[in-house]
Write a structure and sequence with these properties.
heterodimer; A: 113 residues; seven-stranded mixed sheet; B: 113 residues; mainly beta; six-stranded mixed sheet
Chain lengths: 113, 113
């Protein structure tokens, strides 16, 4: 079944740790996105990619980095986590047209102590 | 600045009654409009979208939305609410020529038995 997956679903870590949030999709989509959802529930685009070896920063500045080595995989990395990084991170993917719908994964809820 | 407004933080409705969740936008040109629903501890699920054509768009789970260009609105509606419709609803706009989504702040729908 075509879907979009995120792991882990929940992560609690200490300050200063390096973490990677995984996102994979089996829908064959070229475009992928990372959003940060803050406690007020608003969503902000932090990274996106139009294909392999393509990554761009989104509207909200983020200390995280992303990579796109394979079409189906779009991991997000924080080199040194801080409490301010505590949030929900949502991954999405879409096909190539500008009207194509973005489909979201279940999210990773990150808590940095 | 381009923006999306969801003026109600919460909408309460009795089961069986019609529901409306409001959305207005401030985007130049003819944007693409989307509605998503988020259940607790889950990602966003796509409900429906308006690209062009008929102003009334039908989507998943019996939801529909009406596009009103003169009022720059895209209100979500359902003729008869279910308790299981209780969730967080997001309106999103994609400005013309882009695939970026600008999200509203979300409206929590509470359907009471």
């Amino acid at each position: 079944e075509a879907d979009i997956y995120q792991t882990p679903r929940y992560l609690v870590i200490g300050t200063g740790k390096k973490i990677t949030l995984e996102c994979s999709q089996t829908m064959g989509h070229d475009k992928m996105y990372w959003y940060q959802q803050d406690p007020g529930m608003e969503l902000h685009l932090i990274h996106y990619s139009y294909g392999v070896n393509s990554t761009e920063k989104g509207d909200l500045s983020s200390e995280s980095t992303v990579s796109r080595i394979r079409t189906e995989h779009f991991p997000l990395t924080l080199e040194s986590a801080r409490p301010s990084h505590t949030s929900q991170y949502l991954c999405a993917s879409s096909d190539t047209g500008v009207t194509d719908t973005q489909y979201f994964g279940p999210g990773t809820r990150l808590t940095v102590l | 600045a381009q923006s999306v407004a969801q003026p109600e933080d919460q909408v309460n409705v009795a089961e069986g009654n019609p529901l409306t969740v409001k959305c207005t936008y401030s985007v130049s040109g003819n944007p693409y409009l989307f509605w998503y629903v988020q259940y607790p501890n889950r990602g966003l699920q796509f409900l429906l979208k308006y690209i062009t054509g008929d102003n009334l768009v039908k989507g998943s789970y019996g939801f529909e939305a009406e596009f009103n260009k003169s009022q720059t609105s895209f209100h979500l509606k359902k003729p008869s609410a279910l308790v299981s419709d209780s969730a967080l609803y997001f309106c999103a706009v994609s400005p013309p020529g882009t695939d970026k989504l600008i999200f509203g702040t979300g409206t929590r729908l509470q359907v009471f038995p």
